[in-house]
């Protein structure tokens, strides 16, 4: 594990076993780092991701979070070793604690909610295996960049399991009819199809194109005011869950708050003076 240029919360970044993390110019880069398992999602990785996103929530100076996988794969799904360990445990616990399978599965769902609601813009780069849990992470990103030859899929039903925590996020990303097809057939597909379905936004033919696309996306993010972006993201997500009038009321409250903020003052002055606002410098 390596970290570079992280000025706050060093203890969080220094105690990672399944991830790599670095901070570069206001962007937190997180790499899923279990290459021998194609970065399969262990409970330890879930906990470490959850801790990083909880830390990022307290860091308004962070503009974006970039998630990718090590050694040419994003994430091959759930960790089989964790599953085997849980299978050896009894579902009935005398001390009233949860079934280990429930704990393992539900922890992943809570982490997906954290990623989806992060105040920062979350960018996911998918390469190689993007299956199960990796598919779920792609579906909660704000921006998804994929390699053309990445392999997406929901393999759970072929293993005798439902995509329990992933399903709601897949449906919201691509719609019910396509989610049913993919989940019930266990179909595999590439980055081009992922873009057609709305999972990915950019398809790249090479590592260089991925790097160039990421640079462009991050520069666009930095042109947007960070607090305004956080409010906008919350508003957009609320459109999926709340009644229209409630969403519009919240929007008006956020607009009034933003209009009186230092960000709006700086944005107006930058426009009048024909210069970049300070947050874009």
Radius of gyration (CA) equals 20 Å
CATH architecture descriptor of the largest domain: Alpha-Beta Complex
* Classification by helices and strands: alpha/beta
| CATH C-level label of the largest domain | Alpha Beta
Number of strands: 9
Tell me the helix content.
40-55%
Pattern of helices and strands: HEEHEHHEEHEEHHEHEHHHH
Overall shape? globular
Average of the residue pLDDT scores: 92
How is the main sheet built?
A: 6 strands, mixed
Number of domains: 2
CATH 4th-level superfamily of the largest domain: 2-enoyl-CoA Hydratase, Chain A, domain 1
Give an overview in words.
- By secondary structure, the protein is an alpha/beta fold.
- It folds into two domains: 10-222, 2-enoyl-CoA Hydratase, Chain A, domain 1, CATH 3.90.226.10; 226-280, Orthogonal Bundle (Lyase 2-enoyl-coa Hydratase, Chain  A, domain 2), CATH 1.10.12.
- It has helices at residues 10-14, 43-57, 80-87, 100-117, 133-139, 167-174, 176-185, 191-197, 207-222, 226-238, 244-259, 262-272, and strands spanning 19-24, 27-32, 64-69, 121-126, 129-131, 143-147, 151-153, 188-189, 202-204.
- The strands form two sheets. Strands 1-2-3-4-6-9 form a six-stranded mixed beta sheet, sandwiched between helices. Strands 5-7-8 form a three-stranded mixed beta sheet.
- It starts with 9 loop residues before the first helix and ends in a 9-residue tail after the last helix.
């Amino acid at each position: 594990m390596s970290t570079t240029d992280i000025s706050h919360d060093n203890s969080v970044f220094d105690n990672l076993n399944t991830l790599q993390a670095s901070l570069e110019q206001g962007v937190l880069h997180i790499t899923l780092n279990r290459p021998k398992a194609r970065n399969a999602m262990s409970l330890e990785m879930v906990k470490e991701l959850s801790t990083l996103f909880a830390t990022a929530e307290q860091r308004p100076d962070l503009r974006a979070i970039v998630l990718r996988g090590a050694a040419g794969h994003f994430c091959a799904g759930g960790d089989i070793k964790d599953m085997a360990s849980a299978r050896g445990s009894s579902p009935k616990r005398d001390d009233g604690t949860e079934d280990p399978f429930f704990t393992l599965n539900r922890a992943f769902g809570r982490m997906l909610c954290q990623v989806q609601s992060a105040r920062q813009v979350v960018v996911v780069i998918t390469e190689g295996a993007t299956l199960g849990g990796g598919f779920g992470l792609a579906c909660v990103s704000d921006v998804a960049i994929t390699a053309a030859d990445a392999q997406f899929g929901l393999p759970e039903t072929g293993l005798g399991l439902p995509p329990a925590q992933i399903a709601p996020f897949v449906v919201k990303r691509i719609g019910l009819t396509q989610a049913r097809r993919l989940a019930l057939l266990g179909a595999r597909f590439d980055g081009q199809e992922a873009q057609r379905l709305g999972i990915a936004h950019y398809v790249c033919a090479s590592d260089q194109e991925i790097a160039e696309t990421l640079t462009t996306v991050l520069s666009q993010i930095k042109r947007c005011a960070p607090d305004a972006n956080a409010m906008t993201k919350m508003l957009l997500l609320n459109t999926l869950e709340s009644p229209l009038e409630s969403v519009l009321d919240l929007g008006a409250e956020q607009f009034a708050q933003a209009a009186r903020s230092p960000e709006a003052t700086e944005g107006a002055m930058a426009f009048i003076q024909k210069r970049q606002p300070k947050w874009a410098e």
